[in-house]
Design brief:
With about 100 residues, the chain is α+β, with helices and mostly antiparallel strands. The chain has helices at about 1-25, 80-99, and strands spanning about 45-50, 60-65, 70. The longest helix is centred in the N-terminal third of the chain and has 22 residues, at about 1-25. InterPro entries: Chemokine_IL8-like_dom, CXC_Chemokine_domain, Interleukin_8-like_sf. One of its GO terms (cellular component) is extracellular space.
């Protein structure tokens, strides 16, 4: 009888732990503020990740050429602001062309 009770208690603890892990699994790709700039010649592409259920932040990630890795941009940096402005202008141009 004691062993059955121990098994039930352990099962309840495991379920509670798994539930807690699932709730705290909210993760962003960028940790910290990010970098303020990257040399344009080193940029292969730029990825923009909108806020989502897993991360409430908008994230801009610069993929570097030659597999040199990725860098998160500080959204307050001039590079990030310029890129965002270019995206806005591009979307406005496309919107004007369709109307």
């Amino acid at each position: 009888m004691k062993s059955a009770a121990v098994v039930v208690v352990i099962a309840c603890l495991l379920i509670a732990h798994v539930e807690g892990v699932r709730i705290s699994a909210r993760r962003c790709l960028c940790q910290g503020r990010g970098v303020n700039g990257v040399r344009v010649q080193r940029i292969d592409k730029i990825e923009v990740h909108a806020a989502s259920a897993s991360c409430e932040n908008v994230e801009i990630i610069v993929v570097l050429k030659n597999g040199a890795g990725k860098k998160c941009l500080n959204l307050e940096s001039s590079l990030a602001k310029n890129y965002i402005n270019k995206l806005i202008k591009k979307s406005q141009l496309q919107e004007n062309r369709t109307h």
